[in-house]
Amino acid sequence: MIKRTGNRCERCGVDFDDDFKGEFYHILPVVFGGNNNIDNCSLLCKNCHRIAPNIRNKDEMIIYNDYFLRFASFKEAAHYYNVDNRYDLSIKAAFDFSKIYKKK
Predict the structure, then answer these.
(1) pTM of whole model > 0.70?
(2) Among 8, 27, 34, 35, which is least packed by CB within 10 angstroms?
């Protein structure tokens, strides 16, 4: 996994070194049917690991892959969606998710 990530946080891109190690995060926890395969794990910094979403089933993984990993901050997401508050951001992101779910 370290090779895949380039030894940096997969979300915010902070570099890890000997003093600052990443944390392994199960995208779909084992208790909800996840496994220890590399496709189900991410290497995150402590901050990103702390705020990572609680995924409970495979359908919710889209939230992780298409939203959590894409934006490192509210500011970045707001800029992408061209909004200036969390309410509008939630609406636009939900609309995006609904379009993706319809394709399935």
Answers:
(1) no
(2) 35
